[in-house]
Amino acid sequence: MADRYPPTARTRIKRLPKRAQYDREAVHAVLDAGVICHVGYVIDEQPYVTPTLYWRHGERLYWHGSSASRMLRHLKQGVRACVTVSHFDGFVLARSGFHHSVNYRSVMALGEASLVPEEDKLAVLEDFVERLLPGRWPELRPPTRQEVKATTVLWMDLDEVSAKIRTGQPIDDEEDYALPIWAGVLPVRTTVGAPQPDPRLNPGTPLPAYLRDAGAWPAWLAAAPR
Amino acid sequence: MADRYPPTARTRIKRLPKRAQYDREAVHAVLDAGVICHVGYVIDEQPYVTPTLYWRHGERLYWHGSSASRMLRHLKQGVRACVTVSHFDGFVLARSGFHHSVNYRSVMALGEASLVPEEDKLAVLEDFVERLLPGRWPELRPPTRQEVKATTVLWMDLDEVSAKIRTGQPIDDEEDYALPIWAGVLPVRTTVGAPQPDPRLNPGTPLPAYLRDAGAWPAWLAAAPR
User: Fold this and answer.
1) Per the domain annotation, does A183 fall within a domain?
2) pTM, whole model, 2 decimals?
């Protein structure tokens, strides 16, 4: 397998091509740092953008939801989709308004979604939960057949994909560096706070090991390159 | 002006309608808590979703970028667009996989974008900067005519709009509450860190007042309802 996604006319980044990345490793790193994607699809010529959870397994992106969801009912027909994942890492304050920017990591994947067949759904959902919270799946009340049926899972091949990444300080016009204007980066971070137990928790239920170390979470949640 | 956006066939939320909100105030609160939106548009039947900065002024959403941007060149023709803003507020861990969820606040706005005319652009861009960093615009090196020309600003009326919000603890099947399975919320927060000055800062340039109080930032950055 090639170590990069061949850029196409639709994924080749023309604006600021120095920010573009097509390496599998770079694309995977952006995808694996997030949990929410924005799925674009078209119904009756109107584009819609729906935020939803996703996960990656190898060269496939997965997302899921209620079988009654308009988004999923539409996409499972194999129509064209765009899945975008973005992490906002900071404001970049330059000496002129024009050179202000943001630091970010984003991936855009184009393709057609396919339906995970009924017999594979349970294993795919287990994979999803175990990626987020290793050890949680076997603790849960097992899914009923009706619950699995009421859940639709879609996947899309990572095939027509590009990443776009900006890091670092502002790039100002050379003559502006002498101006006494504050310039720099305001870093933005996404973090997970302390677990908030359900007031109806069965008394004596301990906090599971996978929730004890909040410090481990940023590994998969929008951790910006330091 | 009515205090809610009349739901249409395209914005009426059918799945989990109890999470839907059409009140202007609720929609504005979600929009004003964010800085990054995801814009959906269609070129040659392919949907694209592009993350970009946005701001709200009254009943208009604005976004901007390079005049060379494919997204902006396409949308300025008045084609159909979808602007989605979403804040991810936490993981909701239930006693069954099926009832796991996320806490979030999102807005989907449908419409057609229009171009801000050349003569209005400067005032609109000033409004954008001053909303984010009150006091910064007059400190900056003023924009050149060429820079303004190289910037495209679009707006869209808030007209066909819905918000979807989930808060709080999991809702489990009644018989599952007795199970000794940990359930609760893992809150997710987006925060702004300490300013990182550009190493090329003109020595002696003080940190501006609007950057001194990092605690003020969450007011407009994805601050979840507590």
Assistant:
1) no
2) 0.94
